[in-house]
């Protein structure tokens, strides 16, 4: 808009009026809902056109941080869907608005590649392999408090990241079995090849230099000591890590109890048991074939590999085995409470790692899910 004012000569001239300041971002409306018939996750979607603008979501989260945190504490997972988040950097900006304390150290077993300062690929495991429900790095003394996932490329079919409320698993697991886990805890045994080994192995997921981001054994021992990992160096430059951990954790804020261990991931029968459920869920020829293959591979593994030589294993804290029957009971409760939903490009999923677990269903074709986490 322009205004006319008189000059000293008496003639009028046009004076430019300062343009309105840019409207503050993050003032649009956001709606909250759930998937029909599901209690997980809580869904946030744009409520007006302004909420569709680039950079809206980080600004809105910053202005509404208290209510977002309260929803996360109550429900355990929030899905931000339909907002303009289209790149790994925009995802990182959104993640930083959710929690400034993002981390890069990763002591898990899945191969990952770094994309930005804080963002990694979720997993480089082959697409046919199931990733069982787990709380991220539950084998550590201090697992990540929060996880954030981003769908950069949605699969055409399957490849979901299902969620399970770990508080419900704790409440619904057979009481005697829960007591056994809670009183004894769990012991993890993991083996890793050395830096000169091939990245691909039929049984193993990654090398120890990839896990610890160093080829120096003294540095590995230093990091391991902080996590209370027992370190044993093996022939051929291999590494064995052993540590005992709790099976149940108390939420640091809500003080609720939740199932919180990797028994249903590291058990020798885990993939076989999981695929029996996947077969019923997906019901296609591919899952039928893969279920059969895993049955065969598990059988061969038990015949050809001694228990002490398994790449990953989990037992009760006193060293007694967790039976396949006990594993199936745990798996049954997880699948009873499993929330499965399809990814859409641009989705951002926030998870309270002390309350909700995640996994990955097998898929084929392109799929790109990125991840970051807090302390």
Automatic annotation (TrEMBL):
| Disordered, as annotated region | 1-31
Q: Choose any GO biological process term that the UniProt entry carries and state it.
A: antibiotic biosynthetic process
Q: Which GO terms describe its molecular function?
A: 2-oxoglutarate-dependent dioxygenase activity
Q: Which residues form the TauD/TfdA-like domain?
A: 60-373
Coiled-coil annotated residue ranges, if any? none
Name the keywords, alphabetized. Answer: Antibiotic biosynthesis, Dioxygenase, Oxidoreductase
Q: What is this protein called?
A: Taurine dioxygenase
């Amino acid at each position: 808009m322009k205004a006319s004012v008189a000059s000293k000569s008496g003639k009028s001239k046009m004076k430019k009026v300062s343009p309105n300041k840019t409207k503050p971002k993050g003032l649009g409306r956001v709606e909250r809902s759930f998937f029909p018939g599901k209690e997980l996750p809580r869904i946030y979607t744009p409520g007006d056109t302004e909420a569709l603008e680039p950079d809206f979501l980080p600004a809105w989260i910053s202005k509404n941080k208290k209510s977002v945190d309260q929803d996360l504490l109550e429900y355990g997972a929030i899905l931000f869907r339909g907002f303009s988040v289209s790149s790994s950097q925009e995802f990182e900006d959104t993640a930083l608005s959710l929690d400034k304390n993002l981390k890069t150290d990763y002591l898990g077993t899945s191969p990952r590649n770094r994309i930005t300062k804080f963002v990694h690929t979720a997993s480089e495991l082959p697409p046919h392999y199931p990733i069982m429900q787990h709380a991220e790095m539950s084998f550590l003394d201090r697992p990540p408090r929060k996880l954030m996932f981003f769908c950069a490329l949605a699969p055409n079919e399957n490849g979901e990241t299902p969620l399970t409320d770990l508080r419900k698993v704790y409440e619904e697991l057979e009481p005697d079995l829960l007591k056994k886990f809670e009183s004894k805890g769990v012991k993890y045994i993991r083996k890793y090849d050395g830096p000169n080994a091939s990245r691909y192995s039929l049984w193993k997921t990654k090398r120890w230099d990839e896990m610890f981001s160093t080829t120096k054994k003294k540095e590995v021992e230093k990091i391991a000591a902080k996590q209370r990992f027992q370190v044993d160096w093996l022939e051929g430059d291999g590494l064995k890590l052993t540590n005992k951990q709790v099976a149940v954790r108390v939420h640091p804020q809500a003080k609720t109890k939740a199932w919180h261990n990797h028994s249903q991931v590291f058990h020798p029968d885990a993939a076989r048991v999981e695929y029996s459920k996947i077969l019923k869920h997906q019901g296609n020829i591919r899952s039928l074939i893969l279920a059969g293959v895993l049955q065969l591979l598990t059988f061969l593994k038990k015949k050809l590999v001694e228990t002490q030589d398994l790449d990953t294993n989990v037992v009760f804290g006193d060293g007694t085995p967790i039976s396949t029957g006990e594993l199936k009971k745990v798996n049954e409760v997880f699948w009873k409470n499993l929330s499965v939903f399809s990814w859409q490009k641009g989705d951002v999923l926030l998870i309270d790692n002390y309350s909700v677990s995640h996994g990955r269903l097998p898929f084929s074709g392109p799929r790109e899910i990125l991840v970051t986490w807090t302390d």
